[in-house]
Write a structure and sequence with these properties.
By secondary structure, the chain is of the alpha+beta class. The protein has five helices and six strands; from the N terminus they run βββααβββααα. It is globular, with a radius of gyration of 14 Å.
C-alpha cells in the first residue's frame, strides 16, 4: 500500500530482530522505540512489486501472517533491505518509512485489515502466536 512519507529529523540508532515474536524492534535518537510485526512490514513493503509503478497499481499483500525475516542488509546511511522468508527482498525501508510505520501503527494496521476484508480475504492466526 502506497504511503506518503515525510522527511524526519531523527536517526535510527538500533535494530533488533525478535525471531520468536516475529517483530523488528527499532530505536531512534529522539527516544522513540517501536516493535513492528514482520507481517506488518511485509504488507507495507515499499517495493514496486507491491506498489506498481504509479497510483492505483498497488497489489494487496495477502497470506503474510507467518512471514519471517531471514536477514537485513543496510542500505547506505538511510535504510535497510530485509529478506523475508517468502523470498521477498526488493523493498528498501528508509528510516523515515520505518518511523512512520511505528508512529502510525494504530492507524495503518486496522486500515490493512479493513482492506483485506473488503477484498474478501480473511487473516488466519499466525503460527508463531499459537506455538508458544
Amino acid at each position: 500500500m502506497r504511503l506518503t512519507v515525510d522527511p524526519i529529523s531523527t536517526t535510527l540508532t538500533e535494530i533488533k530482530l525478535h525471531q520468536i515474536s516475529h517483530q523488528l524492534e527499532i530505536s531512534f535518537d529522539d527516544g522513540q522505540t517501536f516493535q513492528l510485526p514482520y507481517e506488518y512490514l511485509r504488507v507495507y513493503t515499499p517495493s514496486a512489486e507491491a506498489l506498481g509503478h504509479g497510483p492505483g497499481q498497488e497489489v494487496l499483500q495477502i497470506g503474510k501472517q507467518d512471514v519471517g525475516v531471514d536477514s537485513i542488509k543496510p542500505v547506505g546511511n538511510y535504510g535497510i533491505a530485509p529478506t523475508f522468508s517468502d523470498g521477498h527482498d526488493t523493498g528498501i525501508y528508509t528510516w523515515a518509512l520505518l518511523y512512520k510505520l511505528g508512529k502510525e501503527y494504530d492507524l495503518l494496521w486496522p486500515d490493512y485489515l479493513q482492506r483485506l476484508e473488503a477484498a474478501g480475504h480473511t487473516r488466519s492466526t499466525p503460527k508463531h502466536a499459537t506455538d508458544r
